[in-house]
Write a structure and sequence with these properties.
15 strands; 7-stranded mixed sheet; alpha+beta; 21% helix; homotrimer; 31% strand; 7-stranded mixed barrel
């Protein structure tokens, strides 16, 4: 089983090329598209997505390509996982969280194709390596070993939390306009926000009212909800609308949440 | 065979999660993506799409998730079909038309995962149920039975038709800007519109000229065509352009067609 | 093995319908999505994409549908390839380059479904033919033979090249804003552009500076690179940005490159 996660865009010929190389390189392997709509170059978002989806497919080879530094000397890696699977992709932070979640037992640097020709590493380096592993090759035989502890980790700053206050990065925005923050249940608790609390969310100095809750039914239509999403992260959602549009946020921006005082604004 | 139809967005990690759960839950089952680009929350459009695509795959398990009410008490359902297949998804209107088209022989309410934790019903409830059915479980064993006649049906208002006049809902807009109306061949006939007639189409009070025809060749480049589309529905199309943009329509809006009199405007 | 290439849009029900027809028409055949995000009606771009991806899948049946002329008398074709595979789609230029690249050994005109009913040729004509070929039917048995040399070829104008100057069509723009030109390595050499040269690129009379190079590392962040891409074509790219947005280009427009003189503007 081979999974694919890229920022190539759904339905793009770049994704098609990966599938073609995998289909020919390891006939019979099942291929599963995990995500292809990541924001271009969003290594951090890709890393977090891979870390939460890869555990759903124990023993699979995960081909992940979000690679704004293609052509630079960043390392190309294959990582052997404790669950019997593997990660293959650029060692730019994309693989670190999944390796930490699943446990890495070995890692090698893949040798890029000849630097004399322009190359598409997804098609020419990573997909062939993933196909070989899926068809039985050992990770250790594909390149020069390095300590998996050296895998690059993306910058994942902890949320800043105080009583009645939290600031955290927006790390994922989906099609529905749900905004996922780099913060978890403990952060929400530490801020003292509990179900039913009226709070505000802001990216600029404009504060937008929200309610701490669990499901859309906890807020009125078009109301904004701050909740723990299905991945265990703090997230903003608008009932029947887009939280991303409401507060004007893009991936990578800092979102501030604060307690709303009746007299405040 | 398991089909998937959602409003999660093509290439999104939400679709990836469904595939992963299905691949592990019923190894060897073939998975077919029917549609993932439905407008967010468009239960009616999803229901009509499912009803016309599901018959192409006799005996398949159809996993359908357009679920703006997730987290509310709306019923989660699995439906046994006369063709040996099944429908799995929220009972919010999404499944009704397909059940009617294919014939429902039994239905059960699925028990949602613990309400104590935030859940993603597609991943945590519907996909596991679909995988179990695809791998041989009986629908009747998955929950508490209810009469399939009680399945919710979406609001599908009949077209209003008079001589030289028709008003119908826009229920589908594709990438080419083709606008599908909730009206069929009989409605067009009842309005007295026949091939070659010059008519107008309007959403607001601005009327746009169109010609009743069968193929783009029946109108000049950039001309608008009113025809019966490949699903048997009345549809608007612009030769080399977008009918949706031309008349300024969004899914769910009412479109009026009328006979164009030479002296009229 | 059956590949699919269309302009239907990723995740659209039109793509879903093709998959459903293929899955039922030739059970067990592997299906590979090559591309579905081609600009609507972009026959030339589709033809070039098909010609470069099809060779990755020797022996496969390639179902290609970019068909702005559906409903007109354009020929519907199935083409037998020298590699044992086949092409199926409208004979409007879409198949010509792939047939030339892979070698065509026979061709037939497919008989369209009854003209009395509106039809979706992808679903009703091309996909069933592709399924039959994938399951063993001979191309010659599917329609009336014609000389494959008669396959329509899209308009592929050669780049105009002079010393220090080149003008070529933009034939592909991907999600990253990379702009692929209908020109190759020889054209770049003929223009006298070599690595490190400072040149300009323009669509209108506004000239944008660029550097001839090989990888993004050859230009500063937000700098524009002119290089040979992984398909061997001249392409424009912006390091950490979009070349398409930078120069304001759409598919089909003419892009001019010129040598930048210090005193020039």
């Amino acid at each position: 089983m081979i999974s694919l996660l890229t920022d190539f865009g759904p339905g793009s010929e770049h994704v098609g090329a990966l599938h073609a190389v995998l289909a020919v390189g390891c006939p019979g392997a099942e291929r599963i598209d995990l995500a292809h709509d990541l924001p271009p170059g969003d290594v951090r978002g890709g890393a977090l997505t891979l870390a939460r989806l890869a555990p759903l497919l124990p023993g699979a080879v995960h081909l992940a390509v979000v690679d704004p530094g293609v052509g630079t000397p960043r390392r190309a890696a294959a990582v052997e996982l404790a669950d019997g699977g593997a990660l293959v992709g650029p060692d730019n932070g994309l693989l670190g969280p999944a390796a930490a979640t699943l446990g890495a037992t070995a890692a090698v640097a893949l040798t890029p194709p000849s630097q004399g020709a322009a190359t598409f590493h997804g098609r020419d380096l990573f997909a062939p390596a993933a196909a070989r592993i899926a068809c039985g090759a050992r990770v250790a035989d594909l390149g020069e070993a390095f300590d998996p502890a050296e895998l690059v980790t993306p910058d994942l700053p902890a949320a800043e939390v105080g009583d009645g206050h939290m600031a955290a990065l927006a790390v994922g925005i989906d099609r529905f306009g749900n905004v996922q923050l780099l913060a978890g249940r403990a952060d929400l608790a530490e801020a003292g926000f509990t179900a039913g609390d009226r709070i505000w969310a802001a990216v600029t100095n404009r504060r937008h009212p929200a309610t701490v809750g669990r499901v859309f039914a906890d807020v009125a239509p078009k109301g904004m909800l701050v909740h723990i999403d299905s991945h265990g992260m703090v997230a903003l959602a608008v009932n029947g609308g887009s939280a991303a549009t409401r507060i004007g946020v893009a991936t990578g921006a800092l979102v501030t949440l604060g307690r709303w005082f009746p007299e405040g604004r």
